[in-house]
């Protein structure tokens, strides 16, 4: 250890020597004097060492204070929240970002359990963050804190474990940054993306419908001609039949030769005459059905709104539901929920057809449903009137959802469905400024919905 060479004050040894020299009454023994001087020198050394230690200590202390101030300053200036907890969750330290978030001063925070400062709904998320662990494993989580006047923004939290010098878990350091803004931005983005996808699908759908419409219009146009002559010919055949049958009946009343009688039986003339009527009637019925379909297709393909009038929704729905139930055998519990005094401007006949189609489809779908229930509703929604037809049937097969509005798509047996109902309804709703859509209900059943501008 180096000795101090200069001392600012007179050293203890000097003072003592002066004291000894100034004393004239003392007898000096040279040996004892040497010992004294040695003792005094040692004392002097110890004293100066002490002084040096003190100076060292002071400078170390100053350094320590500076370091502490630095650390505190850093912690205080981070915008992230920082909370130090012991193993039980008692807060030992919290930075000003946390004090601002919670609206509490450090004195109110320190010593309290962190659980008291967390939003009630988020308390279950705390234990994993406080869980003891070895090593440096960081646990992530999300928390909302209590704040003045409610709860804070959502924070993304990192919990780092703290250990003592023997490696025992003594608590955690929680750091966190607000992510509510980010989350909201993300959700907005997600929503915009979904809207975009929907718009795109809708565009594709509209384009598909439009081209199908053109195709169907072409086919309908082509069919119109042959159908009209099938129709005309059948009517002529009916007239011819009456003449022929009258004539043959007259002949059969006359006595005829054996060969003619044999021919009559071999050719099963009587059976043919009996069949004649039903065959022609069946053909006529077929022709009528085909021309009905063609008429529908043509009407829609070249669809214009036609006559526009003020339509009262309550009356429209009541008559359509009555009409739709008319031909159906099985009983369905139909509930109508329509706000009174709703009006739109449109073509009443066409809108009637839409509701009838949708209700008929629903009743058909619920054929084997135990307690079939149908809800037909209309309500004002801003400037629009929202229509809803919900059944509790089997719903629409996932693979069929994107096809049900196509012309001729049907899952019904031949003769039971044409597959035109929804296609026609889709077109009519679009002409009226809405969009017909179908969804499956989570608890089963299907909902058809559309909204039209209120009058
Ligand atoms: N409420 C509904 N529940 C389940 N499936 C339905 C419902 N409405 C329509 N569908 C399905 O959509 C298909 C097409 O309906 P639509 O165009 O009216 O033709 P159709 O009634 O002649 O079959 C139906 O065959 C059926 O598979
Ligand atoms: Mg139908």
TrEMBL record:
PROSITE patterns cross-referenced by the UniProt entry:
HIS_KIN, PAC, PAS
Q: Cross-referenced Pfam families, in alphabetical order?
A: HATPase_c, PAS
Cite the PAS domain residue spans from the record.
67-126
For molecular function, the Gene Ontology terms on record are: ATP binding
Tell me which SUPFAM superfamilies the record gives: ATPase domain of HSP90 chaperone/DNA topoisomerase II/histidine kinase, Homodimeric domain of signal transducing histidine kinase, PYP-like sensor domain (PAS domain)
Where do the PAC domain residues begin and end? 139-191
Q: Which residues form the Histidine kinase domain?
A: 218-455
**Where does the record place a coiled coil?**
179-209
This enzyme catalyses: ATP + protein L-histidine = ADP + protein N-phospho-L-histidine
Q: Which UniProt keywords apply?
A: ATP-binding, Coiled coil, Kinase, Nucleotide-binding, Phosphoprotein, Transferase, Two-component regulatory system
Enzyme Commission code: 2.7.13.3
Does this UniProt record's set of keywords contain ATP-binding? Answer: yes
What EC class is this?
transferase
**By its UniProt entry, which InterPro entries does this protein fall under?**
HATPase_C_sf (IPR036890), HATPase_dom (IPR003594), His_kinase_dom (IPR005467), HisK_dim/P_dom (IPR003661), HisK_dim/P_sf (IPR036097), PAS (IPR000014), PAS-assoc_C (IPR000700), PAS-like_dom_sf (IPR035965)
> This chain belongs to which protein, by name?
histidine kinase
Q: What is the lineage of its organism?
A: Bacteria, Pseudomonadati, Pseudomonadota, Alphaproteobacteria, Hyphomicrobiales
């Amino acid at each position: 250890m180096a000795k101090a060479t200069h001392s600012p004050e007179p050293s203890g040894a000097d003072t003592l020597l002066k004291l000894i020299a100034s004393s004239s009454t003392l007898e000096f023994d040279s040996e004892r004097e040497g010992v004294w001087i040695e003792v005094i020198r040692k004392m002097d050394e110890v004293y100066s060492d002490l002084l040096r230690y003190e100076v060292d200590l002071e400078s170390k202390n100053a350094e320590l204070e500076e370091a502490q101030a630095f650390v505190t300053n850093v912690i205080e200036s981070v915008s992230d929240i920082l909370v130090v907890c012991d193993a039980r969750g008692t807060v030992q330290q919290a930075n000003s970002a946390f004090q601002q978030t919670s609206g509490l001063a450090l004195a109110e925070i320190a010593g309290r359990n962190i659980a008291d400062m967390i939003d009630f709904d988020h308390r279950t998320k705390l234990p994993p963050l406080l869980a003891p662990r070895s090593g440096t494993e960081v646990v992530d989580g999300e928390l909302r804190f209590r704040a003045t006047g409610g709860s804070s923004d959502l924070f993304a939290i990192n919990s780092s474990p703290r250990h003592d010098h023997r490696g025992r878990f003594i608590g955690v350091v929680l750091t966190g940054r607000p992510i509510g803004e980010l989350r909201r931005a993300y959700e907005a983005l997600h929503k915009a993306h979904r809207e975009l996808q929907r718009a795109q699908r809708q565009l594709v759908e509209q384009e598909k419908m439009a081209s199908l419409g053109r195709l169907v219009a072409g086919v309908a146009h082509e069919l119109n001609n042959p159908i009209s002559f099938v129709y005309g010919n059948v009517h002529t055949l009916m007239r011819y039949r009456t003449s022929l049958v009258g004539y043959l009946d007259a002949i059969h009343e006359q006595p005829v030769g054996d060969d003619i009688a044999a021919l009559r039986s071999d050719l099963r003339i009587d059976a043919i005459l009996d069949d004649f009527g039903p065959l022609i009637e069946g053909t006529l019925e077929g022709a009528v059905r085909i021309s009905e379909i063609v008429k529908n297709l043509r009407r829609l393909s070249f669809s214009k709104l036609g006559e526009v009038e003020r339509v009262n929704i309550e009356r429209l729905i009541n008559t359509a539901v009555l009409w739709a139930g008319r031909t159906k055998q099985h009983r369905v519990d139909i509930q109508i929920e329509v706000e009174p005094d709703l009006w739109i401007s449109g073509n009443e006949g066409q809108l009637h057809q839409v509701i009838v189609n949708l209700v008929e489809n629903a009743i058909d779908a619920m054929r084997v449903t135990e307690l079939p229930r149908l809800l037909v509703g209309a309500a004002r929604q801003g400037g629009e009137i929202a229509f809803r037809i919900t059944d509790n049937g089997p719903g629409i097969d996932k693979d069929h959802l994107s096809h049900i509005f196509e012309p001729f798509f049907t899952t019904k047996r031949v003769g039971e469905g044409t597959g035109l109902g929804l296609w026609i309804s889709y077109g009519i709703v679009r002409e009226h400024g809405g969009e017909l859509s179908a969804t499956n209900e989570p608890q089963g059943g299907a909902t058809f919905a559309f909204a039209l501008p209120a009058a």
